[in-house]
Structures are given as structure tokens and as C-alpha cells.
Amino acid sequence: MSNASPLLPVLEPEAVAPCCPPLNERPLTADEAERAARMFKALGDPVRLRLFSLVASHEGGEACVCDISDVGVSQPTVSHHLKKLKEAGLLTSERRGTWVYYRVEPSVVAAMGQALISG
């Protein structure tokens, strides 16, 4: 395995498909509110927020589950929380041999931030 990490493209704000418009722009539709709530609810659990942070801040922008499992809960609980983060659209994963590598969904941080920007 190479130590070189692939560079990720920088997304321009208009290239990001936000979950919803900025909250001060207009009221959210029911679908927009549902998508945003699903993402923020997934991050509302301290263990999930910590796992998301570990993946997002990991060198190279991705983390092997073997590198992020020490969060004070059992391995099955870590797997459950990672599954919830994937279901909310916050993480993607890729199996490589016996390990699973997680990466933050490329546009998700920008999209969540865009929803909270005030004008």
C-alpha cells in the first residue's frame, strides 16, 4: 500500500448540492427538513459525532475502521454507529480485504455549513 494520499478536489459552493437552503433564506420544505434533520440527528449522538470527526480529520481524508474503533464502546456498537452515519448520507465506505475504510461524503460538510450560513 502506498503512503501517498490521493488529493481530493475542492468543491466550489455552487458545485455542492446542499441538503437545504440557508435557514434564513426561506422556510424549508418538508423534504428539505427531513434530509437536514436526518443528517443533524445522526450527529446528535456523541459517539457518532466523535466517529465522524475521527474520519473527517484522519490523514488522507479516510480512516480504516481499525484506526477509529477506540471510542469507548464495543466494536459492534462502533459498527452500528458507522452504519447510522452512512444511512444519513454522511459517510461512504469501501471494503479493502478484511478492513472497511470510511470517508466523509464529499459535499456533506459544505452542504451542512451552507444550511447554517446567515446572510
Automatic annotation (TrEMBL):
<dbReference type="GO" id="GO:0003700">
    <property type="term" value="F:DNA-binding transcription factor activity"/>
</dbReference>
<dbReference type="Pfam" id="PF01022">
    <property type="entry name" value="HTH_5"/>
</dbReference>
<dbReference type="GO" id="GO:0003677">
    <property type="term" value="F:DNA binding"/>
</dbReference>
<dbReference type="InterPro" id="IPR036388">
    <property type="entry name" value="WH-like_DNA-bd_sf"/>
</dbReference>
<feature type="domain" description="HTH arsR-type">
    <location>
        <begin position="28"/>
        <end position="119"/>
    </location>
</feature>
<dbReference type="InterPro" id="IPR036390">
    <property type="entry name" value="WH_DNA-bd_sf"/>
</dbReference>
<dbReference type="InterPro" id="IPR051081">
    <property type="entry name" value="HTH_MetalResp_TranReg"/>
</dbReference>
<dbReference type="InterPro" id="IPR001845">
    <property type="entry name" value="HTH_ArsR_DNA-bd_dom"/>
</dbReference>
<dbReference type="InterPro" id="IPR011991">
    <property type="entry name" value="ArsR-like_HTH"/>
</dbReference>
<keyword id="KW-0804">Transcription</keyword>
<keyword id="KW-0238">DNA-binding</keyword>
<protein>
    <submittedName>
        <fullName>Helix-turn-helix transcriptional regulator</fullName>
    </submittedName>
</protein>
<keyword id="KW-0805">Transcription regulation</keyword>
